[in-house]
Specification:
Blueprint (H helix, E strand, L loop, with lengths): L15 E4 L14 H9 L3 E5 L10 H6 L3 E3 L2 H5 L4 E3 L6 H5 L6 E4 L7 H9 L3 E4 L14 H20 L7 E3 L2 E3 L3 E5 L3 H12 L3 E5 L5 H7 L3 E2 L18 H17 L2 E4 L14 H6 L5 E4 L16 E4 L2 E4 L9 H16 L16 H6 E4 L2 E2 L2 H7 L5
Parallel strand pairs: 1-2, 1-4, 2-3, 4-5, 5-6, 9-10, 9-12, 10-11, 12-13, 13-15
Antiparallel strand pairs: 6-16, 7-8, 14-15, 16-17
Helix pairs in contact: 6-7, 6-11
The chain binds nicotinamide-adenine-dinucleotide (NAD).
The site of nicotinamide-adenine-dinucleotide has 29 residues, from helix 6 and helix 7.
């Protein structure tokens, strides 16, 4: 394959990819790691990394330099002549203002909460690809950043549950008596939930799980956990859950409450794309729980699966610890950055044409689905609907 080159200039000029330092508080991840830099530079890209961009994830500048990247002291030097910008968190309006027209930005865009920056990208003719819009098809698995990061989130949630639980998780037979294993209940058995189940199982807990999609049952059982059956199958479009009817919600509530009341640790991951998270644990259910029980509400950022969750906070109610963590994948930044960078490497392969130039043909179904903003237009229908009247 010839080297990726800037389509608007000579074929000998390598495409410059810029990797900024993430500025959101608590964000320890970086969009690129030295291992992938080495591969991309070998394929002909020039990679520029902002000074200390990898510090929080334990990838020092020296490792990036050794892998072939150039280190830019600040945003100006980083972005000068950059064709592609790789990010973890969505750009702010101020970030967009530093980009030249035609720059391609790839990363999570969190469109619903970031409309002003999206309007600015539209007006400044920036091209933005949103990784959360990459379709869940087999061909796109290697670029599925939603999955790689959710998986890490599920792992961290299980560890966090164990750390905050006043009990051992495994069964122990000791001279000081026999310890019964703790019960861990996982609500929502998607990517994060399945990883939380696997992790809690490895720690020796008795694990139960529930999901409105009946198809999840087989996956739960294959991990050695018990699947709570309800006479509802709410599998909706694209394998995602649909919203339940009021009668279905009532039935679900009863079954979930009984299981929650028995659990030592409850990890909730239930989400419906683009909507507020469903409430699965009411105030009354929390009051029925055992003192010392722990809820890790992974849906905290989208409203919470527990009625009492406060995003970013840990509270104790009726003796129950309710944790509303934010950005769990950033707590294992070394590996989440590595996986994210690999996702981006795969995604980049779609953006280079047979001459090694950045393509202007975005007709590949993965590019079509993830293209959020291009050539002065918002291309994603739901975001466009939300944007009427939003000015940059
Ligand atoms: N490449 C692929 O083929 C691929 C990759 C990743 C995920 N997927 C599929 O995509 C789908 C979504 O996965 P995700 O982890 O992103 O999901 P998600 O983060 O949107 O939701 C998490 C889980 O919560 C469940 N949920 C929603 N409402 C609920 C309720 N009221 N009660 C209980 N559970 C509820 C969902 O069914 C889902 O399993 C799944 O079917 C998954 O298998 C496919």
């Amino acid at each position: 394959m010839s080297s990726p080159a800037n389509a608007t200039s000579s074929q000998t000029v390598p495409v410059v990819i810029a990797v900024p330092r993430e500025l959101i508080p608590g964000e320890q991840r970086v969009a690129m790691v030295p291992e992938i830099v080495q591969k991309l530079t070998k394929s002909g890209y020039e990679i520029r990394v902002e000074h200390d961009a990898g510090k929080g994830a334990f990838y020092p500048d020296e490792l990036f330099i050794a892998a072939g990247a150039k280190i830019a002291p600040g945003p100006a030097g980083l972005l000068e002549g950059a064709r592609i910008v790789l990010r973890v968190q969505p750009p702010t309006v101020a970030d967009v203002d530093q980009l030249a027209e035609g720059t391609i930005v790839i990363g999570f865009m969190n469109a619903t909460n970031n409309l002003a920056a999206i309007a600015r990208m539209r007006d400044r003719k920036i091209t933005a690809f949103a990784l959360e819009l990459v379709p869940r098809i087999t061909r796109a698995q290697s670029m599925d950043a939603l999955s790689s990061q959710a998986m890490a989130g599920g792992y961290v949630a299980a560890i966090m549950g164990a750390e905050n639980c006043p009990k051992f998780l495994p069964m122990l037979t000791t001279a000081a008596g026999t310890i019964r294993p703790a019960t861990v209940l996982i609500l929502g058995a998607g990517v994060a939930g399945l990883m939380a189940i696997a992790t809690a199982k490895r720690l020796g807990a008795l694990v139960e799980a529930y999901d409105v999609r009946r198809a999840a049952g087989e996956q739960v059982r294959s991990l050695g956990a018990k699947f709570l059956e309800l006479e509802i199958n709410a599998e909706g479009q694209g394998g995602y859950a649909r919203e339940l009817t009021p009668e279905e919600k009532e039935k679900e509530q009863q079954m979930v409450s009984a299981a929650v009341a028995k659990a030592d640790i409850v990890i909730t991951t239930a989400a419906i794309p683009g909507r507020k998270a469903p409430v699965l644990i009411t105030r009354e259910t929390v009051a029925m729980m055992k003192p010392g029980a722990v809820i890790i509400d992974m849906a905290a950022e989208s409203g919470g699966n527990c009625e009492m969750t406060q995003a970013g906070k840990t509270i104790r109610e009726h003796g129950v610890l309710i944790i509303g963590p934010q950005n769990l994948p950033a707590r294992v930044p070394f590996h989440t950055s590595q996986m994210y960078a690999k996702n981006l490497q795969s995604f980049l392969s779609l953006l280079v044409d047979k001459n090694g130039a950045v393509t202007s043909d975005f007709s590949d179904e993965i590019l079509v689905a993830s293209l959020l903003v291009h050539a002065g237009e918002v291309r994603h229908k739901q975001t466009l609907d939300l944007m009427s009247g939003v000015r940059s």
